[in-house]
Specification:
mainly beta; 12-stranded antiparallel beta barrel; 13 strands; 56% strand
Amino acid sequence: MFNNSKDLSELWELDDEHHRGTFLITSYKPIYFSLAKYSSNTNKFPQSENSDMALEAPVNLDPIEAKFQLSLKTKIFHKMLKGHLDLWVAYSQTAFWQIYNKKLSRPFRELNYQPEIIANVPVKFPLLGFETKMVGLSIIHESNGRSDPISRSWNRIALHAGFERNNWQIVLKPWIRIDSKVDDNENISDFIGRGEADVVYDWGRQRFRAVARHSLNFGTKSRGSIRLNWSFPIFENFNGHLQLFDGYGETLIDYNHRQTTFGVGVSLIN
């Protein structure tokens, strides 16, 4: 039986049994294509916080668009620092495509690019009923490759720790933003968040995933997002995919814009 839902040891080659060598390209984040994604509140006039820079007029966006994500990684060094550390590089790209918007000639509304350098250390010790499998640090750049007034980018240093228990996986990732002389998305951490919890549960060949982010502020400044995914088998490695998102920052251009979206599509890698 085919099963593309892997545990942390296999995904990150945490032991000799799962080591596959360096410079071998493997999946990183889920790879999927949402044929249709509906937004409750399309961002037709994006603008950064405390900025006068904005489009000359609102864009006539459709509330229904397509979305897809590609994400790959490769290990470039194995067992560095006396055999305790693996070094990876990763690249993810998420696209939001106004494919049904004939009036605007079906453009890509937003493309987000995210290269990363990831230092990962395999560990093994119990914690609160889970087994800690790995800890590490990453340097993350994310941008949309646009020019002003809709240019968006930021850099982060993130810590991470991965845990497993039976069919559960949890990866916690707090981060610190690296200051930049040019800030085209002011206060982004107060909207997208200062960390995330990625929780996965496998039920047979079905995979349920929740990714929650929070600003770590409270009261009126309590912001963040929740993304829920359900992947289920259709044929061999071909899976159906449902995604529900609510909050801020589904894309960089929407970092300070709240919306609820729902997408239906297919998933190739969970």
